[in-house]
Design goal:
Number of helices: 3
Number of domains: 1
Strand content: 5-15%
Shape: globular
Structural class: mainly alpha
Helix content: 40-55%
Largest sheet: 2 strands, antiparallel
Length: about 80
Amino acid sequence: MSAETLNPLIERLARARGIGDAYHTYQGELKHFSLATKTAILRAMHCRVDDAALLEAQIRESEAAHPVGLVGGIGERRRTPR
């Protein structure tokens, strides 16, 4: 299966499983998760990431269980300087 097919599905499954796009370090620096990191985290969560049909099934399962995502709107909070 080509990366062009799998990458968007991996991104969608990562969001559905509560994996964000970025985080702030303790120093306040914004760090973005790479696709490779998201893939490794999903594998550690026992997700299959090498087959489009399995990815789609896992996405449906996750989205059905958590329609607004695992963190809801909380993950979209913006950090303001103090």
